[in-house]
Design a protein that fits this description.
It is built from 12 helices and 9 strands. It is α+β, with helices and mostly antiparallel strands. The protein folds into 2 domains: about 15-175, Jelly Rolls (Sandwich), CATH 2.60.120; about 185-290, Arc Repressor Mutant, subunit A. The strands form 2 sheets. A 5-stranded antiparallel β-sheet has the order 1-8-3-6-9.
Length: about 290
């Protein structure tokens, strides 16, 4: 059977394997009517805001990656995957917001964070299935109840996963033309990417990746590079090094990580790490904790 006549691929879970490697944590930081200017510094890894009603003017630093001003006048969600300072200015009628800080394991090395635009702004009505989660989140933040903060944190995580799911199905709507999101939106590339995310230690040759995608080796390599912006081998190395960096910061040893990431020995992982980051694992860790 030729590639052009291949059957439609079954649905696959494009997020779980990646999110199991790079966990999401969200934390409720404020909720309620906006009574004055509210500033969000770029110190957290990101922010997730729900604007439930009213008119909101959002400003960003001059010369940054985002417009200096964004007007929100319908119930919307604002998702900042990476640190971006921004300010909320109330309009009329006065808006009500529910906001969380966002922390994805791996920080700037998290493949999802790297693949997303600096701001995703969506009217709530555009994301099918989001309304029940938003309604439950808002009901939990209307008044203080036992376990409120913990439940709100988890509900924000649910909302975030739903947003990521929607983004994978509508990459063009958020301005994503290439990279991981675009790759996961491609049914054939997604099969290979999901398999790699679920088993990064496996011996992933180009031939095996292509076979998993249901493509010829040449077609897979060409399509992967065009859509992802890098070769399959480069992406695999980047993924493994991102996991290694995250796990080293958590205290895992090179001996343990080498087997989990498909390297024959700790020294082999150390050489690959140094080639990728420009530092040995020990020196890199010292840079993450200066003065420690």
């Amino acid at each position: 059977m030729t590639e052009s006549s291949a059957p439609v691929l079954p649905q696959i879970d494009r997020l779980s394997g990646l999110l199991e490697q790079f966990r999401i944590n969200t934390h409720l930081i404020d909720a309620g009517p906006l009574r004055g200017v509210r500033r969000y510094a770029g110190d957290a890894q990101g922010h997730l805001h729900v604007v439930r009603n009213g008119v909101l003017r959002v400003t960003h630093p001059t010369g940054g990656p985002l417009p200096e001003e964004v007007l929100v006048d319908v119930p919307s969600v604002l998702f900042y995957p990476r640190p971006v300072p921004h300010e909320f200015h109330p309009g009329a009628p006065r808006p009500e917001t529910t906001c969380a800080s966002l922390h994805l394991a791996g920080g700037g090395r998290n493949p999802l964070l790297q693949a997303l635009p600096p701001l995703i702004r969506l009217p709530l009505c555009d994301v099918a299935g989001l309304a029940p989660s938003i309604d439950l989140l808002l009901s939990e933040t209307e008044r203080v109840r036992c376990g409120q903060r913990l439940l709100a944190d988890h509900l924000f995580e649910v909302v975030l996963i739903q947003l990521l799911r929607w983004t994978l199905d509508h990459p063009e709507a958020v301005g994503v033309a290439s990279g991981l999101i675009a790759g996961l939106a491609d049914p054939r590339l997604a099969r290979a990417l999901v398999a790699i995310h679920e088993a990064p230690a496996d011996a992933w040759t180009l031939q095996r990746m292509a076979r998993t995608a249901g493509m010829s080796r040449t077609s897979f390599a060409t399509t992967f590079r065009r859509v992802m912006g890098r070769t399959p081998g480069e992406y695999l190395t980047q993924l493994r090094m991102g996991i290694a960096q995250h796990r080293l910061r958590q205290g895992d040893s090179l001996t343990h990580l080498a087997g989990e990431l498909g390297y024959a020995s700790p020294s082999a992982l150390s050489r690959a790490f140094s080639a990728h980051t420009g530092h040995s694992p020990r020196a890199w860790l010292a840079l993450q904790h200066p003065g420690a």
